[in-house]
Automatic annotation (TrEMBL):
Protein name: Helix-turn-helix domain-containing protein
Lineage of the organism: Bacteria, Bacillati, Bacillota, Bacilli, Bacillales
InterPro entries per record: Cro/C1-type_HTH, Lambda_DNA-bd_dom_sf, TPR-like_helical_dom_sf
Protein origin, superkingdom: Bacteria
Pfam family, one: HTH_3
Segments forming domain HTH cro/C1-type: 7-61
Length: 320
Protein backbone atom coordinates (compact mmCIF):
# COMPACT_ATOMS: atom_id res chain seq x y z
CA UNK A 1 0.00 0.00 0.00
CA UNK A 2 1.28 3.45 -0.89
CA UNK A 3 0.74 4.86 2.60
CA UNK A 4 3.16 2.28 4.03
CA UNK A 5 5.88 3.09 1.48
CA UNK A 6 5.52 6.79 2.18
CA UNK A 7 5.63 6.35 5.95
CA UNK A 8 8.72 4.12 5.77
CA UNK A 9 10.49 6.60 3.48
CA UNK A 10 9.92 9.62 5.74
CA UNK A 11 10.61 7.63 8.90
CA UNK A 12 14.02 6.58 7.59
CA UNK A 13 14.72 10.10 6.36
CA UNK A 14 14.03 11.47 9.82
CA UNK A 15 16.26 8.86 11.46
CA UNK A 16 13.35 7.60 13.55
CA UNK A 17 13.00 3.93 14.52
CA UNK A 18 9.76 1.99 14.14
CA UNK A 19 9.48 1.91 17.93
CA UNK A 20 9.81 5.70 18.17
CA UNK A 21 7.25 6.22 15.42
CA UNK A 22 4.70 3.88 17.00
CA UNK A 23 5.19 4.92 20.61
CA UNK A 24 1.81 5.71 22.13
CA UNK A 25 0.08 4.90 18.81
CA UNK A 26 0.55 1.21 18.03
CA UNK A 27 3.06 -1.64 18.35
CA UNK A 28 6.38 -1.93 16.48
CA UNK A 29 5.00 -5.02 14.74
CA UNK A 30 1.99 -3.07 13.48
CA UNK A 31 4.23 -0.25 12.15
CA UNK A 32 6.37 -2.84 10.39
CA UNK A 33 3.36 -4.47 8.76
CA UNK A 34 1.95 -1.08 7.71
CA UNK A 35 5.24 -0.21 6.02
CA UNK A 36 5.32 -3.58 4.26
CA UNK A 37 1.67 -3.33 3.22
CA UNK A 38 0.83 -6.54 5.08
CA UNK A 39 -2.04 -5.36 7.26
CA UNK A 40 -5.14 -3.22 7.39
CA UNK A 41 -5.01 -0.13 9.58
CA UNK A 42 -7.31 2.59 10.78
CA UNK A 43 -7.20 6.11 9.31
CA UNK A 44 -6.60 7.39 12.85
CA UNK A 45 -3.26 5.53 13.08
CA UNK A 46 -2.11 6.91 9.72
CA UNK A 47 -3.11 10.42 10.80
CA UNK A 48 -1.14 10.14 14.06
CA UNK A 49 2.07 8.73 12.55
CA UNK A 50 1.88 11.25 9.70
CA UNK A 51 1.65 14.07 12.23
CA UNK A 52 4.66 12.65 14.03
CA UNK A 53 6.57 12.59 10.75
CA UNK A 54 5.38 16.12 9.99
CA UNK A 55 3.88 15.18 6.61
CA UNK A 56 0.48 15.64 4.96
CA UNK A 57 -0.30 12.06 3.95
CA UNK A 58 -3.08 13.04 1.52
CA UNK A 59 -0.75 15.39 -0.38
CA UNK A 60 1.98 12.73 -0.41
CA UNK A 61 -0.42 10.09 -1.78
CA UNK A 62 -1.65 12.45 -4.51
CA UNK A 63 1.95 13.19 -5.51
CA UNK A 64 2.66 9.44 -5.55
CA UNK A 65 -0.31 8.76 -7.84
CA UNK A 66 0.64 11.58 -10.22
CA UNK A 67 4.21 10.31 -10.72
CA UNK A 68 3.46 8.27 -13.85
CA UNK A 69 1.42 11.09 -15.37
CA UNK A 70 4.26 13.55 -14.76
CA UNK A 71 6.88 11.23 -16.26
CA UNK A 72 4.76 10.69 -19.38
CA UNK A 73 4.42 14.46 -19.68
CA UNK A 74 8.19 14.89 -19.31
CA UNK A 75 8.92 12.34 -22.03
CA UNK A 76 6.42 13.99 -24.36
CA UNK A 77 7.97 17.41 -23.70
CA UNK A 78 11.40 16.02 -24.64
CA UNK A 79 10.06 14.44 -27.82
CA UNK A 80 8.35 17.72 -28.74
CA UNK A 81 11.47 19.67 -27.68
CA UNK A 82 9.51 22.06 -25.47
CA UNK A 83 12.59 23.20 -23.58
CA UNK A 84 10.93 25.34 -20.94
CA UNK A 85 8.43 22.61 -20.09
CA UNK A 86 11.24 20.04 -19.97
CA UNK A 87 13.16 22.15 -17.43
CA UNK A 88 10.07 22.88 -15.34
CA UNK A 89 9.12 19.21 -15.00
CA UNK A 90 12.72 18.25 -14.24
CA UNK A 91 12.79 20.77 -11.38
CA UNK A 92 9.52 19.39 -10.03
CA UNK A 93 10.91 15.86 -9.93
CA UNK A 94 14.14 17.02 -8.32
CA UNK A 95 12.02 18.37 -5.45
CA UNK A 96 9.88 15.23 -5.31
CA UNK A 97 11.32 12.86 -2.69
CA UNK A 98 8.65 10.26 -3.40
CA UNK A 99 10.19 9.37 -6.77
CA UNK A 100 12.87 7.41 -4.88
CA UNK A 101 10.33 4.89 -3.56
CA UNK A 102 7.99 4.93 -6.53
CA UNK A 103 7.60 1.92 -8.79
CA UNK A 104 8.51 4.34 -11.59
CA UNK A 105 12.00 5.11 -10.27
CA UNK A 106 13.65 3.28 -13.21
CA UNK A 107 11.41 5.18 -15.62
CA UNK A 108 12.55 8.43 -14.03
CA UNK A 109 16.25 7.54 -14.19
CA UNK A 110 16.03 6.57 -17.87
CA UNK A 111 14.26 9.82 -18.70
CA UNK A 112 16.96 11.66 -16.77
CA UNK A 113 19.56 9.98 -19.02
CA UNK A 114 17.58 11.07 -22.04
CA UNK A 115 17.43 14.61 -20.67
CA UNK A 116 21.22 14.74 -20.41
CA UNK A 117 21.59 13.41 -23.98
CA UNK A 118 19.23 16.13 -25.15
CA UNK A 119 21.50 18.68 -23.47
CA UNK A 120 24.73 17.17 -24.89
CA UNK A 121 25.90 15.93 -21.48
CA UNK A 122 26.83 12.50 -22.77
CA UNK A 123 29.10 11.51 -19.87
CA UNK A 124 26.36 12.02 -17.30
CA UNK A 125 23.88 10.05 -19.42
CA UNK A 126 26.46 7.30 -19.87
CA UNK A 127 26.92 6.99 -16.10
CA UNK A 128 23.17 6.44 -15.65
CA UNK A 129 23.01 3.90 -18.49
CA UNK A 130 25.99 2.06 -17.00
CA UNK A 131 24.03 1.52 -13.77
CA UNK A 132 21.27 -0.22 -15.73
CA UNK A 133 23.82 -2.35 -17.60
CA UNK A 134 25.26 -3.59 -14.30
CA UNK A 135 21.91 -4.04 -12.60
CA UNK A 136 20.60 -7.52 -11.93
CA UNK A 137 17.00 -6.35 -11.57
CA UNK A 138 14.80 -7.08 -14.57
CA UNK A 139 13.01 -4.02 -15.89
CA UNK A 140 9.27 -3.94 -16.65
CA UNK A 141 8.50 -4.26 -20.41
CA UNK A 142 8.04 -0.54 -21.06
CA UNK A 143 11.15 0.51 -19.17
CA UNK A 144 13.13 -2.27 -20.86
CA UNK A 145 12.28 -0.82 -24.27
CA UNK A 146 12.88 2.74 -23.07
CA UNK A 147 16.32 1.61 -21.92
CA UNK A 148 17.05 0.28 -25.42
CA UNK A 149 15.87 3.55 -26.96
CA UNK A 150 18.01 5.73 -24.70
CA UNK A 151 21.00 3.40 -25.17
CA UNK A 152 20.45 3.57 -28.94
CA UNK A 153 20.55 7.39 -28.84
CA UNK A 154 23.78 7.25 -26.80
CA UNK A 155 25.34 4.83 -29.31
CA UNK A 156 24.38 7.22 -32.12
CA UNK A 157 26.05 10.09 -30.29
CA UNK A 158 29.18 7.93 -29.99
CA UNK A 159 28.98 7.05 -33.72
CA UNK A 160 28.60 3.34 -32.95
CA UNK A 161 26.06 2.89 -35.72
CA UNK A 162 25.90 -0.89 -36.08
CA UNK A 163 25.40 -1.33 -32.34
CA UNK A 164 22.75 1.40 -32.42
CA UNK A 165 20.92 -0.47 -35.18
CA UNK A 166 20.97 -3.77 -33.29
CA UNK A 167 19.80 -2.09 -30.08
CA UNK A 168 16.99 -0.04 -31.62
CA UNK A 169 15.82 -2.94 -33.81
CA UNK A 170 15.22 -5.02 -30.68
CA UNK A 171 12.58 -2.58 -29.37
CA UNK A 172 9.10 -4.09 -29.14
CA UNK A 173 6.88 -1.46 -30.72
CA UNK A 174 3.69 -3.09 -29.41
CA UNK A 175 4.90 -2.73 -25.82
CA UNK A 176 6.75 0.58 -26.17
CA UNK A 177 4.26 2.50 -28.33
CA UNK A 178 6.70 5.34 -29.02
CA UNK A 179 7.41 5.35 -32.79
CA UNK A 180 9.88 8.20 -32.31
CA UNK A 181 12.63 5.58 -32.13
CA UNK A 182 12.17 4.97 -35.86
CA UNK A 183 13.82 8.37 -36.44
CA UNK A 184 16.93 7.35 -34.52
CA UNK A 185 16.95 4.00 -36.28
CA UNK A 186 16.74 5.81 -39.63
CA UNK A 187 19.79 7.93 -38.72
CA UNK A 188 21.74 4.80 -37.75
CA UNK A 189 20.83 3.05 -41.02
CA UNK A 190 21.78 6.12 -43.09
CA UNK A 191 25.15 6.38 -41.35
CA UNK A 192 25.68 2.67 -41.96
CA UNK A 193 24.91 3.14 -45.68
CA UNK A 194 21.67 1.14 -45.55
CA UNK A 195 19.68 3.75 -47.47
CA UNK A 196 16.56 1.69 -48.19
CA UNK A 197 16.09 0.73 -44.53
CA UNK A 198 16.80 4.33 -43.49
CA UNK A 199 14.11 5.62 -45.85
CA UNK A 200 11.57 3.07 -44.58
CA UNK A 201 12.19 4.02 -40.93
CA UNK A 202 12.15 7.74 -41.75
CA UNK A 203 8.70 7.35 -43.28
CA UNK A 204 7.44 5.64 -40.09
CA UNK A 205 8.87 8.48 -37.97
CA UNK A 206 7.40 11.13 -40.28
CA UNK A 207 3.95 9.57 -39.99
CA UNK A 208 4.19 9.66 -36.19
CA UNK A 209 5.42 13.25 -36.02
CA UNK A 210 2.65 14.40 -38.36
CA UNK A 211 0.02 12.59 -36.26
CA UNK A 212 1.29 14.37 -33.15
CA UNK A 213 1.80 17.76 -34.90
CA UNK A 214 5.46 17.73 -33.89
CA UNK A 215 6.63 20.39 -36.36
CA UNK A 216 10.25 20.57 -35.22
CA UNK A 217 10.74 16.84 -35.61
CA UNK A 218 8.93 16.86 -38.97
CA UNK A 219 11.68 19.24 -40.13
CA UNK A 220 14.31 16.78 -38.86
CA UNK A 221 12.83 13.83 -40.74
CA UNK A 222 12.24 15.81 -43.93
CA UNK A 223 15.89 16.89 -43.83
CA UNK A 224 17.01 13.28 -43.40
CA UNK A 225 14.85 12.22 -46.34
CA UNK A 226 16.46 14.92 -48.48
CA UNK A 227 19.90 13.57 -47.57
CA UNK A 228 18.75 10.10 -48.60
CA UNK A 229 17.34 11.40 -51.88
CA UNK A 230 20.65 13.13 -52.66
CA UNK A 231 22.18 9.65 -53.02
CA UNK A 232 19.62 8.78 -55.70
CA UNK A 233 21.08 9.81 -59.07
CA UNK A 234 17.58 9.80 -60.56
CA UNK A 235 16.23 12.34 -58.09
CA UNK A 236 15.93 15.89 -59.41
CA UNK A 237 18.46 18.34 -57.92
CA UNK A 238 16.20 21.39 -58.40
CA UNK A 239 13.35 19.63 -56.63
CA UNK A 240 15.61 18.99 -53.63
CA UNK A 241 16.70 22.63 -53.55
CA UNK A 242 13.09 23.80 -53.59
CA UNK A 243 12.40 21.47 -50.68
CA UNK A 244 15.44 22.82 -48.79
CA UNK A 245 14.18 26.37 -49.29
CA UNK A 246 10.73 25.41 -47.99
CA UNK A 247 12.26 23.75 -44.93
CA UNK A 248 14.44 26.79 -44.27
CA UNK A 249 11.26 28.88 -44.20
CA UNK A 250 9.74 26.35 -41.78
CA UNK A 251 12.79 26.75 -39.54
CA UNK A 252 12.28 30.52 -39.54
CA UNK A 253 8.60 30.14 -38.65
CA UNK A 254 9.49 27.76 -35.81
CA UNK A 255 12.34 30.03 -34.65
CA UNK A 256 14.87 27.19 -34.75
CA UNK A 257 18.13 28.73 -35.95
CA UNK A 258 20.13 25.58 -35.19
CA UNK A 259 18.07 23.56 -37.67
CA UNK A 260 18.25 26.38 -40.20
CA UNK A 261 22.05 26.33 -39.91
CA UNK A 262 22.14 22.58 -40.63
CA UNK A 263 19.76 23.02 -43.55
CA UNK A 264 21.93 25.76 -45.08
CA UNK A 265 25.05 23.61 -44.62
CA UNK A 266 23.45 20.61 -46.33
CA UNK A 267 22.13 22.73 -49.18
CA UNK A 268 25.60 24.28 -49.60
CA UNK A 269 27.07 20.79 -49.93
CA UNK A 270 24.53 19.94 -52.66
CA UNK A 271 25.71 22.97 -54.67
CA UNK A 272 29.37 22.18 -53.95
CA UNK A 273 28.97 18.66 -55.40
CA UNK A 274 27.71 20.04 -58.72
CA UNK A 275 30.51 22.66 -58.71
CA UNK A 276 28.32 25.72 -58.12
CA UNK A 277 31.03 27.02 -55.81
CA UNK A 278 29.86 30.61 -55.49
CA UNK A 279 26.37 29.61 -54.36
CA UNK A 280 27.84 26.95 -52.09
CA UNK A 281 30.17 29.49 -50.47
CA UNK A 282 27.34 31.93 -49.77
CA UNK A 283 25.25 29.19 -48.17
CA UNK A 284 28.15 27.95 -46.05
CA UNK A 285 28.69 31.54 -44.92
CA UNK A 286 25.02 31.90 -43.93
CA UNK A 287 25.27 28.65 -41.98
CA UNK A 288 28.40 29.84 -40.18
CA UNK A 289 26.69 33.07 -39.14
CA UNK A 290 24.13 31.03 -37.17
CA UNK A 291 26.68 28.87 -35.32
CA UNK A 292 28.93 29.21 -32.32
CA UNK A 293 32.43 29.92 -33.63
CA UNK A 294 33.91 27.58 -31.03
CA UNK A 295 31.82 24.59 -32.13
CA UNK A 296 32.82 21.72 -34.38
CA UNK A 297 29.77 22.38 -36.55
CA UNK A 298 31.06 25.89 -37.25
CA UNK A 299 34.42 24.49 -38.32
CA UNK A 300 32.73 22.08 -40.74
CA UNK A 301 30.93 24.95 -42.46
CA UNK A 302 34.10 27.03 -42.41
CA UNK A 303 35.96 24.24 -44.17
CA UNK A 304 33.21 24.04 -46.81
CA UNK A 305 33.31 27.80 -47.22
CA UNK A 306 37.09 27.89 -47.70
CA UNK A 307 36.98 25.03 -50.20
CA UNK A 308 34.23 26.81 -52.13
CA UNK A 309 36.32 29.98 -52.22
CA UNK A 310 39.45 28.15 -53.36
CA UNK A 311 37.62 26.35 -56.13
CA UNK A 312 35.38 29.26 -57.10
CA UNK A 313 35.52 33.02 -56.93
CA UNK A 314 38.31 34.20 -54.62
CA UNK A 315 36.39 37.38 -53.73
CA UNK A 316 34.13 35.31 -51.48
CA UNK A 317 36.97 34.71 -49.06
CA UNK A 318 37.14 37.06 -46.08
CA UNK A 319 39.22 36.89 -42.93
CA UNK A 320 37.88 35.26 -39.74
Amino acid sequence: MNEGKIIKFYREQSGMTQEQLGKGVCSVTHISKIELGQTHYSPEIITLVSKRLNINIKEEINAFKKTKQGLDQWLNAMIMERKQEVETIKSEFENNNIIEISEYHSFYKLLLARYYLLNEKHDVACDIIRIFKKGDKELPPYESNLYKHVLGILLLKNQEYQQAIETLKSINNDTYKNPEYFYHLAIAYEANDAKHMAYSCAKEALRYFKETSNFLRIIDVEMLILILKSHDKHHDFNDRCRKYEALIQSCELCHTSARKAVMLHNMAFEYFVIKYYETAGKLYKQSMDLKDKKSGKYLLSLEGYIQSCLKGSKHLLVSY
